Amino acid sequence: MEQIYLFSKKNVFVKNMKNFSWNDLYKDLENSKEESYREFSQKLSPDIKILGVRIPIVRKIALRYLKEYSTEELLSSPLPDNAYLEEKLCKAIFIGRAKIDEKKRIDHVKEFLSYIDGWAICDGFCSELKACKDNHKLYYPLIKKCFKVQSKPFTLRFACVMSLMYFSDAKYEDEIISYLNNINTEEYYVHMGVAWLIATLYTKNGQSVLDKVNSIVLDDKTYNKALQKITESNYVSKETKVQIRKMKRR
Predict the structure, then answer these.
(1) Are residues 95 and 204 in the same domain?
(2) pTM of the predicted protein model
């Protein structure tokens, strides 16, 4: 294999001249799979293709590819048809960890949204987009657009999870809650995403969140799930949890 050497003051990094191949990446993932873990994961996501590779190992493989191959090639290579969850997670890590201009990263984020078809890849992708912390002005317009995509449940969940991870400060509270008023879906993972978001807003910003939630149209199932998640939080006192449980809709 041809190699190119990149020198720094302390280290020598070796990059492959060989072209990136999803087939090669698949083989690396397959060599690390565990059948028992696949069976466990499949029960949590029965409709998703899963190899059975633990997340820390997937991350380790993806980060190695980021060091050894061209960033541009990793980002521009389309995922295989019917990709496994682990392959999608690798792509999510490529997008989230690549050292690129943030506007270019957002373009890749938009493109990747069509591949999000389950809670695991949705939430995993969101957790990789840590660059959002320092680039709210660039990312927030995208999140607002995603809240309006009623026909794609995991795009809605993406908006919820990104909001609870990166936009849960009080300055975004009113607008985000207003977007929840427009969500009309029977999708379980959207309900869970909304509930998780409300609970996060509450633990960060207090009772005013539930007062505002009560002013919008929110189905009883999602509302009660949000209350449940609040009571599961370690940041809420026992006395407050008692009061929260009394707010449950019958």
Answers:
(1) no
(2) 0.90
